[in-house]
Amino acid sequence: MSTIIEAPRTPRERSSKGRVNWEKWGWIYMRASGVLLIILIFGHLFVNLVLGQGIKAIDFAFVAGKYATPFWQIWDVVMLWLAMIHGSNGMRTIVNDYASNPVVRRILLIALFVAAVVLIVLGTLVVFTFDPCSTLIPADQALSFCPVS
Amino acid sequence: MAIEEASTLTTARSSSKRPAGTLYRGNTGMWSWVLHRITGVAIYFFLLVHVLDTAMIRVSPGAYDAVMSTYKNPIMGLGETALVIAIMFHAFNGLRIILIDFWSKGAKYQRLMFWIVIALWVIGTAGFAPIHLANVFSEGH
């Protein structure tokens, strides 16, 4: 079988007109989400690691205080979705570059997809179903403002 | 100026291990790409772990505080410093990539922008690392 190498700068032949060009949208997504993630992650790092006592102050009560407001719930969930998809798509690019064996490549891509779906669903559920005074929390660990059951 | 043999095919004679006569290999463009990949992979794997450790708030206060106590360990503190440094490079170089793609003079100034990225990276590290390391190595909870 002979391979025809087209002249440089030959326009790409569009296989099926009207189809969604997923690679193009992935390329756009990396840039758009990247800009938003700079704001979201730098804000996240500043509030959690720079202000006050930084990491020393982070405990259950700190996170419970943040998730008492919809502002931080939405901030974290948007950050989770954007970052997981941005990171997974970046890893997909790397897998496509280095995994030459088609079977290995397929397994790695499926693993990336499964990890992204599981963590996005888990993280979203955790943020929106979080109850700082859940009755599942042992009494000796409950926060002081929670009603004693 | 002498005409140098700048073909990529004639680099074998050089005693230097660094390939000569290519625009890309061994230059800032290549190293920014290498660093972008390495930092990206590192941040990705931390993100996987970070979603899981934060999910512990849904289990119990004790479970969350236990996992957070491992992040307050000094060795982990050094790792967190490295992570934030990696995030800063990825962020600043990501903006450089966007400017190369969308700004009409982006490709022309990509090398200058690489050094601006490095400068911002050093400034950001100098701003963050002392604060975080002071928190990590301070006494008490």
From TrEMBL, chain A:
Starting at the broadest rank, the lineage of the source organism is: Bacteria, Bacillati, Actinomycetota, Actinomycetes, Micrococcales
Is Iron found in the keyword set?
yes
Chain segments annotated as transmembrane: 28-47, 67-86, 107-130
- What is the protein's species of origin? Subtercola vilae
Tell me the GO molecular function terms: metal ion binding
Q: What is its main location?
A: membrane
Any Pfam family hit = Sdh_cyt
Where does the record place it?
A: Membrane
Q: What are the entry keywords? A: Heme, Iron, Membrane, Metal-binding, Transmembrane, Transmembrane helix
A Gene Ontology term for the protein's cellular component: membrane
Q: Does the keyword Disulfide bond apply?
A: no
User: According to the lineage, what is the superkingdom?
Assistant: Bacteria
- Note the coiled coil stretches, chain numbering: none
The protein's name is Succinate dehydrogenase
